[in-house]
Automatic annotation (TrEMBL):
Ligand binding (UDP-alpha-D-glucuronate): P18, T19, Y20, D49, R86, R91, D117, D118, D119, H232, T233, R234
Reaction(s) this enzyme catalyzes, per UniProt: 3-O-(beta-D-galactosyl-(1->3)-beta-D-galactosyl-(1->4)-beta-D-xylosyl)-L-seryl-[protein] + UDP-alpha-D-glucuronate = 3-O-(beta-D-GlcA-(1->3)-beta-D-Gal-(1->3)-beta-D-Gal-(1->4)-beta-D-Xyl)-L-seryl-[protein] + UDP + H(+)
Gene3D superfamilies the record matches: Spore Coat Polysaccharide Biosynthesis Protein SpsA, Chain A
Stated name of the protein: Galactosylgalactosylxylosylprotein 3-beta-glucuronosyltransferase
Gene this chain is encoded by: B3gat2
Pathway as given in its UniProt record: Protein modification; protein glycosylation
Pfam families cross-referenced by the UniProt entry: Glyco_transf_43 (PF03360)
């Protein structure tokens, strides 16, 4: 038999990415796919906020050259108000898919789950850091919470607090891009999901992590949480002031 490639022993990273239709959607997904394509053993779980899979995202996934599962679930209209948490249904759909896929396989099942929103910028080093997650690992996030960065404060290898400019009273004052969870933890807490009821914006991370871990158990990564390896960059709102109301071009072009 051919020699086993060393990466076969690597735990798979499962990246759950909620996405929704907007002018920059394909640009954001392209940027993210270009990052993911350089990461060994990564499985992308792309979840559209839609009643059906869109042609744009389906075509994109087909040509992305990545192991990818394309799901869809619509956000109920009553939750689409400003000030309410976003992407809850989509992240939960990704969790449900993961559990369903793995429920009949024997442990241990090496794997790491990461919530990778499509409007962030990710260093490749971040994926090396998260791959050794035993339970729940954490690291700083740049350009978030009204500060240049937020981070877990670490003493003697343990998280003892949070450097944050926004709601420091949160049990886990951390952004969605600031933690990873081992697949084993996800499978051993089958009811752990993102909750709609009683969850305020910015509290979803805490409400989820409270179900699966404690602050004492967190594993600091990124040089004891002193390196920023992910940035909440977001994309500038697109100016479409000169876009014609009706289609005037002679060809139909997907953007």
């Amino acid at each position: 038999p051919p020699p086993r490639r060393p990466e076969a022993a690597l735990p798979t990273i499962y990246a759950i990415t909620p996405t929704y239709s907007r002018p920059v959607q394909k640009a954001e997904l392209t940027r993210l796919a270009n990052t993911f394509r350089q990461v060994a053993r990564l499985h992308w779980i792309l979840v559209e906020d839609a009643a059906a899979r869109s042609e744009l995202v389906s075509r994109f996934v087909a040509g992305a050259g990545l192991p990818c599962t394309h799901l869809h679930v619509p956000t109920p209209r009553r939750y689409k108000r400003p000030g309410l948490p976003r992407a809850t249904e989509q992240r939960n759909a990704g969790l449900a898919w993961l559990r369903q896929r793995h429920q009949h396989l024997p442990p241990p099942q090496p794997g790491v789950l990461f919530f990778a929103d499509d409007d962030n910028t990710y260093s490749l080093e971040l994926f090396q850091e998260m791959r050794t997650t035993q339970k729940v690992s954490v690291w700083p996030v740049g350009l978030v919470g009204g500060r240049r960065y937020e981070r877990p404060v670490v003493e003697n290898g343990k998280v003892v607090g949070w450097y944050t400019g926004w709601r420091a009273d949160r049990p886990f004052a951390i952004d969605m891009a600031g933690f990873a969870v081992s697949l084993q933890v996800i499978l051993s807490h089958p009811k752990a999901v993102f909750k709609r009821r009683g969850s305020q914006p910015g509290m979803q991370e805490s409400d989820f992590l409270k179900q699966i871990t404690t602050v004492e158990e967190l594993e600091p990564k990124a040089n004891n949480c002193t390196k920023v390896l992910v940035w909440h960059t977001r994309t500038e709102k697109v100016n479409l002031a000169n876009e014609p109301k009706y289609h005037l071009d002679t060809v139909s072009i997907e953007v």
